[in-house]
Amino acid sequence: MSKANDDIVKVQTRGGDIPFSVGYLSDALLSIGLPQEQAYNDSYSISLIVAGQGKSLLTSEEIMKITANWYEGRDPELSGRIMIMFNDFEELKPMVILLGGVTGIGKSTLSQLLGSRMKIKSLIGTDLIREVMRVTISPTLMPSLHTSSYIAYKKMDTSFLPALSQPIVGFEEQARSVVVGVEAAIEQAIDDNEILIIEGVHLVPGLIKKKIMKKEAVIEFQLILKDEEVHRSRLKRRESKKTLRATQYSKHIDEIREIQEYLIEQANTNNVKLINVDDDEEALQEMINYIWESRIIKID
């Protein structure tokens, strides 16, 4: 669609009239799980139909119908996703998306990208839940809570469990404490009919109460970074910020990688979807498609 047409055709939205463009529609198509190149190419084809309407102002509902109709003969499932997406994802509510994974693999970045792409405004991290708990629970009462998850064992007496990995014992001890707050956040979001993303290292598969995880509204991912050198480089990138916390990461990569192996085992045991995050875009696509497939009955 030419720039001249972009200037002529506008979309009527709740926030006011905005110019229609290939980029506008492409962003919408990314939220239903299309690869970036396909989203752009499909948007261009649809924009020609929009321009052919002979109108200078179209409602978002009209754009939705044109787009859904275009996909109907090509991929009926995508056509159904389009209609839900243009309706502010109402049919997906409530929904809680859990993104677990060890320190330094990019959970926060991916959770923000996922939220932006799927227009999800509510996002919290388990580190924040842990900080709130630290204010209310003293180090004397729960020492493992008051340190980084991968060295929590140093605050505990693990001598009575010589057969188990000490980093994992300490990590799980901290995770069990934080999960109490996570469970409350999940139940609140479901009660409020909201869509919420929770990300953090403390989201250990199998640790959250089964009665909560059995709810259809909860979707759980375990993010993993298979390449140790890539993981190390990401930790080094954090160290370049010169913060005390960042400079500790690479010193403990062995503990962090050991915890990742434990989380992979737990994910496999509890049928939790594993997502490799070597490539952010591929990881996003895989998550978005899994979310749609998990929450929507496929159109025959």
Structure description:
The structure is a single chain. The protein has 300 residues and is α/β, with parallel strands linked by helices. The protein has two domains: 3-86, no CATH class; 90-295, P-loop containing nucleotide triphosphate hydrolases (Rossmann fold, 3-Layer(aba) Sandwich). The chain has helices at 3-8, 22-30, 36-51, 60-72, 76-86, 107-117, 126-136, 166-191, 210-213, 228-239, 244-249, 253-269, 280-295, and strands spanning 10-13, 16-19, 57-59, 95-100, 122-125, 195-200, 218-224, 273-276. Strands 5-6-4-7-8 form a five-stranded parallel β-sheet, with helices on both faces. A three-stranded mixed β-sheet has the order 2-1-3. The chain is elongated, with a radius of gyration of 22 Å. The relative contact order is 0.13. Residues 1-6 have low confidence and may be disordered.
